[in-house]
Please model this.
Amino acid sequence: MPNPKPARGSSLGLIVLWQLFAGPMHVYRMQKLFEAQGKDRIVNVRSRASLYQTIERLERHGLVEVFETRRTEGYPDRVVYAITDEGRVVARQWLREMLHNTEGQYPEFIAALSILFGLEPGEARAELGLRADKLQDALAETEQGLTDAPPDLPRLFLLEEEYRRAMLEAEISWLRSVIEDLAEGRLTWSEEWLRELMQKFLPADDQQPEEDI
Model:
């Protein structure tokens, strides 16, 4: 029985639904197609367990259904899933929302930046340097992928890599500027300085919210 509550959109859920637009398939084939298409660079599809969990959630909401069970001697049974009519509607709805929505995205890196002062400036600079180096490698890999793409492949199927390249270039440039400011002392902090700021800007422990007074 489908779950009466509307399903919350997720990147993996959207990719799964969109893959099923091509036709019914079992999870193993779906995973292989994702890897062949580079979708494993966008969402976590390397864990088959996460794929099964996502499909089970989509099934509970009536967005996918069991199409058939294929039995091959010497191999485990493989359940083939198909997208439902409701799934087609919801997939397009999620796609529209994810293209324009900028809210509700909480990357770990931004959370870490918000408490960068938890490390000494030199240690923070070293960690950001490691990130910049890793992103530089990712940028080189992305650029190579774009170079190696078949010349007759329409740009439509390269947009995600173009976006990745643009985002990597922008973040690397920003990181290098922060690292340089840390190295030159233009961006720095100390425990004493942080304590003074806390006393200046944070409310005292005994400060009561207006509604509680």
